[in-house]
Amino acid sequence: MTDTTAVLDEEGYLLNLQDWTPELAHQLAQDVDIALTEAHWEIIYILRDFYQEYEVSPAMRPLVKAVSKKLGAEKGRSIYLMTLFPGSPPKLAAKIAGLPKPANCL
């Protein structure tokens, strides 16, 4: 269960982005049966940097591009992101990173 001091919306996204902490990220990940590894943290911090720069959570294509730019072509692939964040990597990673739901993700 998530930290009681953090307020989430009905889909589990953090309402106040300033409430995010690495500890909360662990809790949010546990809620969806993900044990965060160094590989997950690389993506989470890229997402948070992306959000800080563009004030939007990236959908799959911009996320893949950002990861590829920072970590190289091998990790900048949707298949790789799917292994870390199954289902919808942009939505799941944004949720764990304490960011809003990507606008064009259903």
Automatic annotation (TrEMBL):
<dbReference type="GO" id="GO:0016740">
    <property type="term" value="F:transferase activity"/>
</dbReference>
<dbReference type="GO" id="GO:0097163">
    <property type="term" value="F:sulfur carrier activity"/>
</dbReference>
<comment type="function">
    <text>Part of a sulfur-relay system.</text>
</comment>
<protein>
    <recommendedName>
        <fullName>Sulfurtransferase</fullName>
        <ecNumber>2.8.1.-</ecNumber>
    </recommendedName>
</protein>
<keyword id="KW-0808">Transferase</keyword>
<dbReference type="GO" id="GO:0002143">
    <property type="term" value="P:tRNA wobble position uridine thiolation"/>
</dbReference>
<feature type="active site" description="Cysteine persulfide intermediate">
    <location>
        <position position="105"/>
    </location>
</feature>
<dbReference type="InterPro" id="IPR043163">
    <property type="entry name" value="DsrC-like_N"/>
</dbReference>
<keyword id="KW-0963">Cytoplasm</keyword>
<dbReference type="InterPro" id="IPR042072">
    <property type="entry name" value="DsrC-like_C"/>
</dbReference>
<dbReference type="Pfam" id="PF04358">
    <property type="entry name" value="DsrC"/>
</dbReference>
<comment type="similarity">
    <text>Belongs to the dsrC/tusE family.</text>
</comment>
<dbReference type="GO" id="GO:0005737">
    <property type="term" value="C:cytoplasm"/>
</dbReference>
<dbReference type="InterPro" id="IPR025526">
    <property type="entry name" value="DsrC-like_dom_sf"/>
</dbReference>
<dbReference type="InterPro" id="IPR007453">
    <property type="entry name" value="DsrC/TusE"/>
</dbReference>
